[in-house]
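Consider the tokenized backbone below.
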């Protein structure tokens, strides 16, 4: 369920090239769907999950999720959140250099542009102030850096069963040989499947899965030590070192602008 702060309607039919809306969301989940337009989703507060047939993405506060037009996806919000969604005409702005789906780091300028464009009328004219504002946003989006907040999924049933085991327990420390045995495959087979279908070794995939689990928990202000242990690390220091390797900074700096309490309305 969500409360829109913008006129509702079908954004794919809007006259303007870039339109949007801001939503205050209670926990909800959408079915698989797609839009003709590209989407840029920005989380002001809360965490958004997105899934396609190819993988999963997590959107913490102060980042943005890009979804190319025509890509089928499902969104999940597990706790209260506030998000802004922009719909961008893919004929006029093809964004061919962008991945079909990705999370990007958002600069302070882009954050303010997203907030402003999400509240624009859906029928502004070319050459208007609103039009020029949207053009600045488009130019800025093209310069944003990617954030490693995606998790490509294998397609083989045996590898997917390993994925499910780790989803049930992100801190699972069982070696690959034992996990492979539980799904009726050899460790070599599972390693080969992950490398072929996710472009990551099994160890690298497991590490990224743990990090994404941790990012969501930390985004809600949970204790670093507790999150580290639940993610399978022996100490907070080893977790912080691993976090820095992946994200280039410590958890406290990564979330220094935004922290979302689970109790916020």
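A designed sequence for it:
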């Amino acid at each position: 369920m969500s409360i829109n702060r913008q006129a509702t309607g079908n954004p794919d039919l809007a006259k303007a090239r870039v339109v949007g809306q801001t939503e205050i969301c209670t926990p909800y989940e959408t079915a698989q769907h797609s839009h003709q337009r590209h989407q840029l989703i920005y989380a002001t507060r809360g965490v958004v999950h997105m899934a396609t047939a190819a993988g999963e993405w997590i959107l913490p506060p102060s980042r943005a999720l890009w979804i190319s037009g025509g890509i089928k996806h499902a969104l999940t919000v597990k706790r209260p959140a506030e998000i802004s969604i922009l719909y961008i005409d893919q004929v006029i702005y093809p964004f061919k250099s962008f991945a079909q789906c990705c999370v990007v780091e958002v600069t302070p300028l882009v954050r303010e542009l997203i907030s402003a464009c999400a509240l624009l009328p859906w029928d502004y004219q070319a050459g208007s102030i609103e039009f020029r504002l949207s053009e600045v946003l488009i130019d800025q989006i093209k310069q944003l850096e990617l954030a490693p907040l995606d998790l490509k999924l294998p397609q083989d049933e045996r590898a997917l069963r390993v994925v499910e085991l780790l989803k049930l327990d992100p801190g699972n420390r069982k070696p690959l040989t034992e996990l492979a045995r539980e799904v009726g495959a050899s460790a070599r087979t599972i390693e080969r499947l992950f490398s072929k279908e996710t472009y990551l070794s099994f160890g690298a995939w497991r590490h990224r899965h743990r990090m994404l689990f941790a990012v969501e928990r930390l985004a809600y202000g949970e204790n670093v030590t507790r999150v580290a242990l639940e993610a399978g690390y022996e100490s907070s220091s080893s977790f912080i070192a691993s976090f820095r390797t992946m994200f280039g900074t410590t958890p406290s700096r990564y979330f220094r602008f935004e922290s979302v309490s689970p109790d916020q309305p």
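Residues 259-265 have pLDDT under 50 and may be disordered.
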